[in-house]
Structure formats: C-alpha cells, structure tokens
Amino acid sequence: MGNELMQIGQVSTRIGLSLRTIRHWDEVGLVTPSARSAGGFRLYTESDVDRLAFIKRLKPLDFSLEQIKELLATVDGLQDELTPERLEDLLGRLAMFRAATDSRLDALRHQVDSLEFLSRDLKNLDISSRSGNASRSS
C-alpha cells in the first residue's frame, strides 16, 4: 500500500477492530493518525496500521492500556537518538516487559499442561466407564 493514507473504516475492516476501539486508542494516546482529511477524518499510514495491529495482539494478553502505552513509549524511544543513560533506561524497561512476558508465558504453559492432564484423565475415565459398563451388561 506504500504511502497511501487510509480512512478509519478501511483500517477497521483490514485489521478487525471496531471504529470505536480505534477512536478510543487514539483518545488515550496509544496511536495517533498520521493525518486528517480536510473534513477532519482520521487518516492512517501503513505504519499506523502496524501499530494498531501490535496493540490488538497485546490487548488479550492482559496488558492494561497504561502498560501498553508504556511499552509503546519504550519502543518509540528506542528509535530516537539517545544518550547512553537514556538508552540504558529504555533497555531496562524493555527487559522488564520481556521478563513479565516470559513469566506470563510460563504461567500459560503450566495452564496448558494442567488442561492436557485433565483432558487425558477425563478421557481415561470415559474409556474405563464405557468398558466397565460393557462388561456389566454382558
């Protein structure tokens, strides 16, 4: 799509977000449209769409809007020219997000393992109940 500007409806359809959600994320400062039309309509670039898609992926992972805002500010900050101190600060923040993400991933893996054990136990119970009833009916 190159440098083409897209209206909010196009963006909404493309990435599967409601107009209301996109507007809300704009209002709370997560994503700002790159331009406005003469009529005041929000216009988005490919980069804006990528940012919205990134936020969309974070939302179901239990990140609050404030945490998402902080992560985006960290990522955005890394694009600037930085003093060594500022770079160290941003990399420290990034490491905190990475640690939180890894911790959440470990918790989800444990949950999946537990669900797999439960599923296997229920399957075995089903099989043993069927075979027990079959032998009793004979």
From TrEMBL:
The keyword Phosphoprotein does not apply. Transmembrane segments: none annotated. Residues 5-74 form the HTH merR-type domain. Pfam families: MerR_1. InterPro entries: DNA-bd_dom_put_sf, MerR-type_HTH_dom, MerR_fam. GO terms for molecular function: DNA binding. Keywords: DNA-binding. Coiled coil: none annotated. Gene3D superfamilies: 1.10.1660.10. This is DNA-binding transcriptional MerR regulator. The lineage of its organism: Bacteria, Bacillati, Actinomycetota, Actinomycetes, Pseudonocardiales.
